[in-house]
Design goal:
This protein is mainly β. It has one domain (3-150). Helices cover 13% and strands 39% of the residues. It has helices at residues 94-97, 106-109, 139-150, and strands at residues 3-6, 19-24, 29-35, 43-49, 51-58, 76-78, 83-84, 87-91, 113-118, 122-128, 133-137. The strands form three sheets. It has a five-stranded antiparallel sheet, with no helix packed on it. The protein has a four-stranded antiparallel sheet with strand order 2-3-4-11, with helices on one face.
């Protein structure tokens, strides 16, 4: 059965992120710009190296977000609000197990971990052989990237 664990980072994370902008730089690196809650005007840059696979799904379209009674629940950021912690590692991943030997060879499978980033807009799942890194960036940097890759959404 899958289990969720928080990914603790060197910086304090918000209760949740409002959205993510995701870019694959080449076949092994992922860059994610994360917007904190709009009233805080904080933004973050999440970088991941040695990515095996990733998927970005709209918040309400993720197949594993519907829980049955007794299913494990991700840990909360804020117990009072019942908001899931935004950066999770998934142990005993069904997704990793679904890869054939041809798609995920032993030397990668042994160290591969499944991670999940949660926001109010979308969910990112990725499998990587390295822990994601995060740093805070200026809000205007986030807005500039958002406008560059998709036009002005504000």
């Amino acid at each position: 059965m899958e289990k969720y664990q928080r990914i603790f980072t060197q910086i304090a994370l918000p209760d949740t992120f409002s959205e993510y902008l995701t870019m694959s730089l080449d076949d092994n690196n992922l860059v994610v710009y994360a917007s904190g809650m709009m009233d805080e005007k904080k933004s973050y840059l999440i970088t991941v190296e040695d990515v095996v696979a990733f998927q970005v799904l709209e918040e309400f379209c993720h197949p594993n977000m519907d829980r049955k009674r007794g299913d494990p629940v991700p840990p909360f950021s804020n117990e009072a609000k019942k908001i899931y912690y935004p950066m999770l590692r998934i142990e005993n991943s069904i997704w990793i197990d679904s890869f054939s030997e041809n798609r995920l060879r032993d030397h990668r499978r042994e160290s591969a971990m499944h991670y999940k980033l949660l926001s109010y807009s979308n969910v990112i799942d990725f499998i990587s052989n390295r822990l994601p890194e995060i740093k805070e960036i200026r809000y205007d940097e986030y807005i500039a990237i958002k406008e560059l890759i998709g036009g002005n959404f504000t």
